[in-house]
Amino acid sequence: MTSASPRLLVIACGALARELLAVIRASGWSQVTVQCLPAELHNRPHKITGAVQEKIRAARDRGFDGRIFVAYGDCGTGGDLDRMLAVEGVERIEGPHCYQFFAGAGLFDRLNDQEPGTFYLTDFLLRHFERLVIRGLGIDRFPELKLQYFGNYRRLVYLSQQPGPDSIAAARAAAERLGLAFEVHHTDLHGLRRALAPAQAQPHGIREERIAWAS
């Protein structure tokens, strides 16, 4: 290990944490710090831009002089995230959301063309389906909300990256719970790795990888 300061700070959505670290390790990155914001922000996308900006400015206030990269899509901010990042001079991962990162633009576009009313699950969202979807949207307390949130959906597509032995059964059960047809596509991490290509343009000095979570 080395005491050298990290040269790349990745500010990421917590929903990407596990997969992001897997890509970093497989790619041999070094001197990287990953700071994750809570995935629950996706239920309140108007807060994403401000939360990311706070992380950027906090890093600079601490004297960080390396490169900052943001692992967020637009994620429902309506372009606000991109406008803020342009002011701050910071790049982000390309694409509108993590479903496209994982599937790749080609597969995602085909799925969307086949059925625009598709609800997507990733490994993270599947693991936290009860907390983020059922309780997070209040469906546990007000079952009638299920129709309001999912009445226009017809299909659930599970985009699996590193699934566990029971993941497909759990995803199928989630689809049944929402009253949706079920489909699964194994994407692995190749799409995310391609989407992170701009951040990989870093010199490989070696050694330090850390992850910090937002409070």
The unreliable regions are 203-211
Number of helices: 10
Shape label: globular
Q: In which range does the helix fraction lie?
A: 40-55%
Portion in strands:
15-25%
Q: Largest sheet, described in full?
A: 5 strands, parallel
Assigned CATH architecture of the largest domain: 3-Layer(aba) Sandwich
Mean pLDDT: 88
Termini separation comes to 27 Å
Strand arrangement within the widest β-sheet reads 4-3-1-2-8
According to CATH, the fold-level topology of the largest domain is Rossmann fold
- Total number of β-strand segments? 8
Radius of gyration: 18 Å
The total tally of domains equals 2
CATH class of the largest domain: Alpha Beta
In N-to-C order, the SSE pattern is EHEHEHEHHEHHHEHEHE
Helix/strand/pairing category = alpha/beta
What is the structure about, briefly put?
The chain is α/β, with parallel strands linked by helices. It is 40% helix and 19% strand. It contains 10 helices and 8 strands.
Textual characterization of the structure:
The protein has 215 residues and is an alpha/beta fold. It has 2 domains: 8-97 and 191-213, Rossmann fold, CATH 3.40.50; 105-186, no CATH class. Helices cover 40% and strands 19% of the residues. The protein has helices at 17-27, 48-61, 80-88, 98-103, 105-114, 123-127, 129-135, 145-150, 167-178, 190-195; strands at residues 8-13, 32-37, 67-71, 91-92, 118-121, 155-160, 181-186, 209-213. It has a 5-stranded parallel β-sheet with strand order 4-3-1-2-8, with helices on both faces. β6 (155-160), α9 (167-178) and β7 form a beta-alpha-beta unit.
